[in-house]
């Protein structure tokens, strides 16, 4: 059994617990294993989970529970798992989404694996049928070492619609519940329309991915009114991730020179954008010829479980108002001249929040946001000392907090991410105008 995440050193020192004792305890009880399975793998509700495991949770010290959940799911050995599946499900809006999953040839549930989400192109078509193939077979480099998820999109459900945001979130949840995923190594890539859709999904779901690598796509697709993008794509959110963008020099649909100019523009928001203009046109050949470069880039990236510096821009109709440990509540903003309005100039108003953590201190800056929720992890904060939150030099909160088992279980069950566990929720009221 692989231990994913040891107790934070500051927590160990403050409590005097021995990590070996905690881990040995966690590994050697059937009840502990069942709790891990119900938190990370089962569809059981949080309320029912608390009932089923009530006595165990009550009798367990917070630090032991944290150590237990830090190990993530517990998958039984199953050598008969198919290495490729095609499946579908119906969304809450009664839309059937098809997907396929490819496992590494040597997949073992006792290990964890990177997950690559790859978006296909050619979406100007009717909905896919189960007898059809919407995925492409990637070259062996990296592909044989990762779990690959191939979602599907079509004319009525393009990658840049809210329904696809919900689809990708649902599929990520499904894969994490079913397979041994390293949640710090989830990558997003795609070809053509899928490359363009990568910009959209990365803007809304940046904290889910470690890196993004679009092929022969263009963010101008999202900006074009005829493509009817729902919501917006904000440059600030794209800058939360490292990128390798590959476009063909002979591509007449999305000329590399045109895409390169946009990437130059994005550089003002962050230095994580790498652009490569390569020989080739708008074809699968360009992907195959340059997959090795992309694979090496993706393998070199790992998501920081809990970043100390978080930036987020969201709009009033956003479905996902969170980045890592920062949740932004919207409250009636209007467009401001000094706020970048994203790729869609006629979009809904947006708010911006910057959050920076240093030791037990959080510094906030906001434009038009009046409330945030901070999710506090023992991996970043010392719960034996007061935690302070300030905005523009004004102290908004300063108090010692008690780690909460209820909060730990709530977000572990919601996020299915053993690398991000939280011990407290803190609601903070802001002035809303501290970004100059």
TrEMBL record:
<keyword id="KW-0732">Signal</keyword>
<dbReference type="Pfam" id="PF00756">
    <property type="entry name" value="Esterase"/>
</dbReference>
<feature type="signal peptide">
    <location>
        <begin position="1"/>
        <end position="26"/>
    </location>
</feature>
<protein>
    <submittedName>
        <fullName>Alpha/beta hydrolase-fold protein</fullName>
    </submittedName>
</protein>
<dbReference type="InterPro" id="IPR029058">
    <property type="entry name" value="AB_hydrolase_fold"/>
</dbReference>
<dbReference type="GO" id="GO:0016787">
    <property type="term" value="F:hydrolase activity"/>
</dbReference>
<dbReference type="InterPro" id="IPR000801">
    <property type="entry name" value="Esterase-like"/>
</dbReference>
<keyword id="KW-0378">Hydrolase</keyword>
<dbReference type="InterPro" id="IPR050955">
    <property type="entry name" value="Plant_Biomass_Hydrol_Est"/>
</dbReference>
